[in-house]
Amino acid sequence: MKANHPWRVLRRLRNAVAMGLSAVVLGGCGITGLTSSLGSAIFGDDNESTPTVARVTEEQLLMAAKSGTGGGDTSALVAHGCPKMVISPNDRFLTRYEAGREGDGLAILHRGEITKTARECQIEPGRMSVKYGFSGRVLLGPRGQPGKVHLPLKVRVLDYNRSTIQAQAINVSVDIPPERPIAYFSVVRTVTFRFPEGTRPADYRLLVAFDQPGPAG
Prior knowledge:
By secondary structure, the chain is of the alpha+beta class. Helix content is about 15%, strand content about 45%. Strands 1, 2, 4, 5, 6 and 9 form a 6-stranded antiparallel beta sheet that branches. A 4-stranded mixed beta sheet has the order 3-10-7-8, with no helix packed on it.
């Protein structure tokens, strides 16, 4: 049996350390939370990269939407003391067409997309307050014109049975400039609901979606 030379031992040790570091990085996945006097805030994206924010603000969400970093669907992530906030997979987009030409890609007026979310929470006896925010973008289609675009959205609070216990309708106005066929939006709201003893923040969920209207006419 051959003796282990020093260089072989060092190589094995280096490989073991490298594998350990890889496991730590992959296991942690960059997920962090920031606890503040109001509870916890989280700001994630579709890749589950989650830089933290101390407060949920329209400015932060708007910057995240424009940069394409941070924010997004947080379905797999829960901030300490906060319910999940999820972008509805079926209503993440809103596409408007010229009247009578629904489904025709050449007749699209504009298309909205929800891209970023964030929330922070405060729990008091018997109730929870969630300051939530979301942002996104609007793109002009082949038949679209610059100007003001109105986007109807809805945020629902779901309990552990996935029943809606509260809903908020939100209308967003976005100005699309003539020189560029894209504009961004951000919204911050607060919702308060009953939080009975024995339940956990993870039992609840905030679901944000476009409130799909009828065809444009």
